[in-house]
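This section describes the prediction task in plain terms. A model, or a person checking by hand, is given the sequence of a single protein chain and must write out its three-dimensional structure as a string of tokens. No templates, partner chains or ligands are provided. The sample shown here is typical of the held-out split.
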Amino acid sequence: MPDHHDHDSNSTHTTRRGFLGLTSRALAVATGAAALPTVCFSPAYAADPDELPTVPLAERGSLVMPRFISRPQWRARSPKRRSTRIYPARGGVAVHHLGPKRFAASKHSFCPAQVRGIQNTHMDDRGWDDIAYTYLVCVHGYVFEGRGVGIRTAANGTNDGNDRYYAVCGLVGGGSAYDPITDQLIQGFRNAIAHLRSVGNAGTSITGHKTFMATECPGKLSAYLSAMRPG
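The expected answer:
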């Protein structure tokens, strides 16, 4: 059902697929997988992570988030539009993963291209306003700015979920063979959630995407929700 509040669709996940419309061509990542015929990553933006300095969020609030990569740093496209119709104090943060296939990059240098590929899929294939998530976290512990603080997400699958919860997605996936859940990944989630509480007025709830609809998401991250709680 289309969400007329921010013009994004709430048909975000199919029941078993578990990730937000990320097509098979977007899975040509640096995990040893062969390149697919069509990929939605732009080689022109294949930046080395050493060229992506982490930046404190002093301009956005009192809490400094380590290993933060802003939209300009990962070369995000401009959103079609934004909605500030979100009331996260009534909810909190919903955790996501990227579905039934392994996704994590072996080297952080490929993570910015992965995030751009997700944005391209969401905007071009799904017709959404922007990348659906508030933040994205890689296994190397970096937090990528998605829609950002104070912007309504399109990730949680229902109007109520998008109204009350931010969405933070781990750049991991898999089935019986799942990407490693690294300490850096979980710390990245803690940093993102702490920042959303400090600056984004997020409530204390941390839940999985499957709270809002029938999906396997967030996969094996479901077992780590309590570990993501900021100290």
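For orientation: The two ends are 38 Å apart (CA to CA).
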